From TrEMBL, chain A:
All residue ranges annotated as the CCZ1/INTU/HSP4 first Longin domain in the record: 16-121
Annotated signal peptide: none
Organism whose genome encodes this protein: Oreochromis niloticus (Nile tilapia)
Ranges of compositional bias, category Polar residues: 327-347
Single GO MF descriptor: small GTPase binding
Originating gene: hps4
GO biological process: melanosome assembly; protein targeting; vesicle-mediated transport
Identification of the protein by name: HPS4 biogenesis of lysosomal organelles complex 3 subunit 2
Segments forming domain CCZ1/INTU/HPS4 third Longin: 516-613
Automatic annotation (TrEMBL), chain B:
Membrane topology per record: Lipid-anchor
Protein source organism: Maylandia zebra (zebra mbuna)
Name the UniProt record assigns to this protein: small monomeric GTPase
Assigned keywords, A-Z: Cell membrane, Cytoplasmic vesicle, GTP-binding, Hydrolase, Lipoprotein, Membrane, Nucleotide-binding, Phosphoprotein, Prenylation, Protein transport, Transport
GO biological process: protein transport; Rab protein signal transduction; retrograde transport, endosome to Golgi
Primary site of residence: membrane
Subcellular location: Cell membrane; Cytoplasmic vesicle, Phagosome membrane
Catalytic activity, EC: 3.6.5.2
Domain of life: Eukaryota
Length: 624, 202
């Protein structure tokens, strides 16, 4: 009964161990294991311990994989749970505490590998082109980034860090979305996102891609040493930089299949006098996408139709609603009740193009915003190089549980498959497992040789205005196309200046103590978390909720048919509910839990679902 | 007199659609986009220029004209050195609203001595043939409301835009000079003539 009481103290750092092992370096009996260790974290781990762990885990991983004819996904070793990935001769393992949900550990590792490939290209090629030390620094940086400034909840859900929208006028989110759309008038711009102090304000990219882009943003913000290929453009007074990145084929196809009607894009050579381009509006996607065909023809869209109604907080539907002012008035209370009715009364109608944009898929991307209660992103993770774990490596390896990824198509394309899942929407949840990458042509899926080619070089362009960053994925020749660059730069500069001024002056809400209830709402589609839990506090009263949420999330991931659950201790109870698109967790604080030992109709835990439904409406969470 | 560069904040106010953003873009980037979206909240661009030997960086704040954006724009009125009240000569209502814009500015910018604050009035879109506001009407309003300089501009055809901003700078510098002299010498030039009170429609 008292599951929560048994839970251990949390560690602010999620990852205990991480390594990349190259089996091709250790072929013969005489080859020392250390030759195969490309990177090991924590770096100060004694080499013999590194060898022990790498050798044993790699061996067991291969063994299990061969016995089960499917890739090994997870290995458990004493108090550590290792997510495993194998590709070609490479072997990755990421070890976390056993308390962390398996799905979270797996996602963490996928993110880490994806990040590396995004900035460095294929792993084999990277190790041919760069020294081991250079790449070790990068692994360390990505690892640090993924763990920095996040709350425990955000680790559990592997969610995007977004700005706290509770105090942000929704019109400013619209402004951000319009800036991105204006940039897309240049045909060399694929998609973009706007970040403020390391948090997402608006994005047109998938959560997975947005997450990757944010790493470079935080690097340029902290002025860390730049990776190769980064260059600052002098002509734009040092505020513009770019770096080469690598997209997977599904990622690229997703971007290219976004309903950007190229026919309506302005030519980069904007004429002084508008001649034939008379009908072209600035917000191409708002006004110039007349039909809805393009939406339908986007099978890779990761947004299930119910998204809008399930995510009444600022989904892109809301952002592009024809009546932004009413939301301004209700920005602190964006409940569906207050939002919806004014959609139809038209008295605020901003403009016809906004009316048209109610077909939300025509917005050319996702705009997302959610609140998340944790603190600053820019804190150094002082634990990063902290001491080693719990001294679990006494030499006795105790494989208590071996989970094989039977749900994966069993070939050796683990990495690619995984990346497509995590870059898509549902990030590996059971609900989304059935989503194939639909646009991937069959040859690419089947031929192993094409995989290395499946990483396509693109350029990440960044324009910084103080704490605000405009990040755009652009065609590689964008940076050498002065006309296009100037066009994008000048068309967005004033708006970015203004947006930065607006966001800077927003005062953060008062950090509340424990309120009458605690909740966390995870939008699986946008990979965003809304919670009234202040992430920094780490307060004792938060812990039961966080641990219960972790457990419930695990259960939801493992049991596809599970929709609702209550987890309880002697003193409190946490209610969890989920659908394809969302997971919601709710805890009523204070008051005594009437708990007679045996469930009865007086048990206050049974009133949690209805309490959650009513309380969360004002947070824009609709459980009805 | 001085060689140091000073930052001057000028703010464009006026009804939605009169061309405030276009005026700013014409002046700073010398570009014109007929299909700009509504400005949401505020935006700004900087431009360095020299006026009468003074190096200044002009920070031009462009604002949203629509009423529903009021709460977003008004916090940024404070600290303005000059206010450009803008209307469109083909929209009489935008002209009639000038007084409201002036009031709103004085209130939110917390101007201590409104009668001394430098306003400049711009009648934009003179390229349009169907005018609803005559030059005389506009001049009359400027005369009666504080003897403000009046410029008829076209952001589209690049008419008078730069001249208007330069006049704004002169107005600010003139006010500064007055205040500078006030403190050490105790003398006040009450009737310091602005350099060009006349309209500049060409």
């Amino acid at each position: 009964a008292s599951v929560m009481a048994e839970l251990l103290q949390p560690d602010s750092r999620m990852c205990n161990y991480f390594f990349l092992y190259d089996g091709s370096k250790v072929r013969g009996e005489a080859d020392p294991t250390r030759d195969g260790i490309c990177y090991f974290y924590p770096e100060e781990t004694p080499l013999d311990k590194q060898e022990l762990l790498c050798g044993q885990l790699a061996g067991v991983g291969r063994c299990v994989s061969e016995l089960s004819s499917s890739p090994t996904r997870t290995l458990r070793l004493r108090r550590n749970k290792f997510a495993i990935r194998m590709k070609d001769d490479f072997f990755w393992a990421l070890g976390c505490s056993v308390d962390v949900p398996t799905v979270s550990v797996s996602e963490f590792l996928d993110q880490l590998i994806d990040l590396f490939c995004f900035y460095n290209g294929p792993v084999r090629r990277s190790y041919q082109l760069n020294s081991q030390e250079t790449l070790a620094a990068r692994w360390a940086r990505y690892l640090s980034h993924l763990q920095s400034g996040s709350s425990e909840l955000s680790h559990i859900f592997s969610c995007l860090r977004t700005i706290d929208s509770t105090n942000v006028d929704p019109l400013l989110l619209l402004k951000a979305a319009l800036i991105l759309q204006a940039c897309q008038r240049c045909p060399l711009v694929l998609a973009g996102c706007i970040l403020f102090r390391g948090r997402v304000v608006s994005t047109q990219m998938s959560p997975g891609l947005t997450m990757k882009v944010m790493v470079h943003e935080s690097e340029t913000y902290t002025k860390a040493q730049r990776p190769n290929g980064t260059s600052a453009s002098s002509s734009f007074s040092g505020t513009v930089s770019s770096t080469t990145v690598f997209l997977t084929t599904p990622e690229l196809q997703d971007l290219q299949s976004a309903p950007v009607d190229k026919g309506f894009r302005c030519c980069p050579t904007t004429p002084q006098r508008d001649g034939p381009s008379k009908k072209t509006r600035l917000s191409r996607t708002l006004s110039d996408t007349p039909s809805t065909e393009s939406q339908v023809s986007n099978p890779s869209s990761s947004q299930p139709p119910q998204k809008a109604s399930l995510s009444p907080r600022l989904s892109d539907l809301d952002v592009f609603s024809p009546a932004p002012t009413h939301s301004a008035a209700n920005s602190l209370n964006p409940s569906p009740q207050s939002l919806r009715p004014s959609l139809s009364n038209g008295e605020h109608s901003v403009e016809d193009e906004m009316e048209e944009s109610r077909s939300r898929k025509s917005t050319g991307g996702r705009s997302q915003i959610h609140s998340e209660g944790d603190g600053s992103v820019f804190e150094e993770d002082s634990h990063l190089n902290g001491g080693e774990g719990e001294g679990a490596f006494g030499g006795v390896f105790d494989f208590q549980a071996v989970e094989s990824g039977n749900e994966q198509p069993h070939d050796d394309k683990v990495v690619e498959e995984d990346s497509s899942v995590s870059c898509g929407s549902v990030s590996g949840h059971s609900a989304g497992k059935s989503d194939p990458p639909p646009l991937l042509p069959p040859p690419h899926r089947l031929s192993d040789a094409s995989e290395e080619n499946a990483l396509i070089p693109m350029t990440l362009y960044m324009h910084r205005v103080k704490g605000l960053v405009l990040a755009l994925l652009v065609e590689p020749h964008f940076m050498s196309d002065a006309t296009s660059m100037e066009e994008v730069y000048h068309s967005s500069l004033a708006s970015l200046n203004g947006l930065e001024a607006h966001l800077r002056t927003i005062s953060p809400g008062a950090p509340g103590g424990p309120g009458p209830y605690t909740f966390a709402h995870f939008d699986c589609v946008q990979s965003t978390l809304t919670t009234n839990l202040s992430g920094r506090s780490g307060g004792a009263w938060d812990q039961p909720f966080v641990r219960a949420t972790s457990l419930l999330h695990s259960h939801f991931c493992n049991t596809e048919t599970l929709q609702e659950a209550i987890i309880r201790s002697a003193s409190t109870a946490v209610y969890g509910t989920r659908s394809v698109a969302q997971e919601t967790y709710f805890q009523q604080n204070g008051g005594s839990l009437r708990n007679s030992g045996i469930p009865n109709h007086q048990d206050s835990a049974f009133s949690l679902p209805s309490k959650a439904r009513h309380r969360l409406l004002k947070h824009g969470v609709n459980l009805l | 007199m001085t060689t140091k560069t000073s930052l001057l904040k000028v703010i464009l106010l006026g009804d939605g659609g009169v061309g405030k953003s276009s005026i700013m873009n014409r002046y700073v980037t010398n570009k014109f986009d007929a299909h700009l979206f509504h400005t949401i909240g505020v935006e700004f661009l900087n431009k360095d220029l020299e006026v009468d030997g003074h190096q200044v960086t002009l920070q031009i704040w462009d604002t949203a004209g629509q009423e529903r954006f009021r709460s977003l724009r008004t916090p940024f009125y404070r600290g303005s050195d000059c206010c450009l009240l803008t209307f469109s000569v083909d929209d009489n209502q935008s002209f009639l609203n000038l007084g409201n814009w002036k009031k709103e500015f004085i209130y939110y910018a917390d101007v201590k001595e409104p009668e001394k604050f430098p306003f400049v009035v711009l009648g934009n879109k003179v390229d349009v043939t169907e005018r609803q506001v005559s030059t005389e009407e506009a001049q009359q309003w400027c005369k009666e409301n504080g003897d403000y300089p009046y410029y008829e501009t076209s952001a589209k055809d690049a008419i008078n835009v730069a001249v208007a901003f330069e006049e704004a700078v002169r107005r600010v510098l003139a006010v500064d000079e007055r205040t500078d002299h006030l403190i050490p010498t105790d003398t006040v030039k009450l009737h310091r003539k602005p350099r060009s009170t006349a309209t500049c429609c060409s």
